[in-house]
Specification:
This protein has about 300 residues and is of the alpha/beta class. Helices cover about 45% and strands about 15% of the residues. Bound molecules: nicotinamide-adenine-dinucleotide.
Length: about 300
Amino acid sequence: MKNIAVIGSGTMGNGIAHTFAQFGYQVNLIDVNNEALERAISTIGKNLDRQVAKGTITEADKANTLKNISNFTQLSEGVANADLIVEAATENLELKLKIFKDLDTFAKPEAILASNTSSISITKIASVTNRGDKVIGMHFMNPVPVMKLVEVIRGYATSDETTAIVMDLSTKLSKAPVEVNDYPGFVANRILMPMINEAIYTLYESVAGVEEIDTVMKLGMAHPMGPLQLADFIGLDVCLAILNVLHDGFGNPKYAPCPLLVNMVTAGNKGVKSGEGFYNYAKGIKEAVVASKFSK
Ligand SMILES: NC(=O)c1ccc[n+]([C@@H]2O[C@H](COP(=O)([O-])OP(=O)(O)OC[C@H]3O[C@@H](n4cnc5c(N)ncnc54)[C@H](O)[C@@H]3O)[C@@H](O)[C@H]2O)c1
């Protein structure tokens, strides 16, 4: 494993490229959008500067990391020599199926194809390729250079060999890989999203206000951030999409998204990225206040 291709240079893709490059791998970063690639390189540069300022890496490490990353807009060129491809493109089933069909055509036959999807079935993604044994989930957490966990998801056909290679590789990135099976939400989101949904139901049923709910979970359970604020950071549209995957996948009403969440997303209130969710971010994240709909 020397050559890695990362597909998608957004929030996750740039962090994944940064991490592999920092640990000495040659990374081809691929995005259909050239501006996204330029933004990614600038973000990686700023994040490396932060690591230099903290003393965790040197200026030379920064230069080497940047030297290890090459940009591509054509998937066929970017993946040709890759031993491992990590797909981190937009969370959309049709898009991912198309990308994996193309990967099966353009990647080396022995290459491992991994997806960073938060919620789409790895078994389904693998089913459009002729190498289901080499398709796996590699679910990094945001921000990738900082967060230790990699949820390694075995699809129905993923081989022991592929799983062992990806677990070992994650360790070489100084991450802590955890192996899980491919069922809706895997482990992380299967547990996190129902908690967020329950927090939204608690608000919807007027048991308590936004700040009260978040304070209980922060001070009572030692969570670094309350569940409503966390939902705003993840994106309320993303939370809704994952809850729908859980609801459809298990057919269990306990995963039904709270009607308040559905209304907020329909109205365009998606959290930090739209400027308002449970909190209003007009004055920046540090000075966010409870959104006017929920203020007393
Ligand atoms: N954001 C998170 O906190 C988080 C955490 C874990 C996993 N994920 C997963 O990571 C993946 C990426 O999420 P993100 O938040 O980085 O998204 P993002 O919107 O920030 O970036 C997605 C990038 O994919 C690019 N893209 C779209 N179609 C493409 C194609 N055909 N080929 C190449 N690039 C293409 C877009 O131009 C964009 O730059 C999703 O599957 C998401 O579920 C996200």
